[in-house]
């Protein structure tokens, strides 16, 4: 008789333990920063193999040395962009001096280091749906 009561007791105990631990797991999962959330959207770092993202990142240039500072911008291409157009646009960005940080496959876009003066010319490209400065995103 005690064995029949013992099994349900263990099940209830396990449910209680999971109930105590689960909220902490959900909180930890929800507190990713913007780049980790981006990686869940199938972002692919374009850093060379054997290097981490920080090593591949160019140092921001300070305006005091006669050059314009670079910032990270998210460029989203139109939904009907073909893979060939995507790759051609990628090469075009590189020729214009952009450093590609991430490529996004789901939203068809890039995270790139560019100068603010380049934003207007990128906006005018017929393939570009949107361009915005990258920023941190926080959960409530």
TrEMBL record:
<dbReference type="Pfam" id="PF05922">
    <property type="entry name" value="Inhibitor_I9"/>
</dbReference>
<dbReference type="InterPro" id="IPR010259">
    <property type="entry name" value="S8pro/Inhibitor_I9"/>
</dbReference>
<protein>
    <recommendedName>
        <fullName>Inhibitor I9 domain-containing protein</fullName>
    </recommendedName>
</protein>
<feature type="transmembrane region" description="Helical">
    <location>
        <begin position="6"/>
        <end position="26"/>
    </location>
</feature>
<dbReference type="GO" id="GO:0004866">
    <property type="term" value="F:endopeptidase inhibitor activity"/>
</dbReference>
<dbReference type="GO" id="GO:0042144">
    <property type="term" value="P:vacuole fusion, non-autophagic"/>
</dbReference>
<dbReference type="InterPro" id="IPR052471">
    <property type="entry name" value="PBI_I9"/>
</dbReference>
<keyword id="KW-0472">Membrane</keyword>
<feature type="domain" description="Inhibitor I9">
    <location>
        <begin position="72"/>
        <end position="139"/>
    </location>
</feature>
<comment type="similarity">
    <text>Belongs to the protease inhibitor I9 family.</text>
</comment>
<keyword id="KW-1133">Transmembrane helix</keyword>
<feature type="region of interest" description="Disordered">
    <location>
        <begin position="40"/>
        <end position="68"/>
    </location>
</feature>
<keyword id="KW-0812">Transmembrane</keyword>
<dbReference type="InterPro" id="IPR037045">
    <property type="entry name" value="S8pro/Inhibitor_I9_sf"/>
</dbReference>
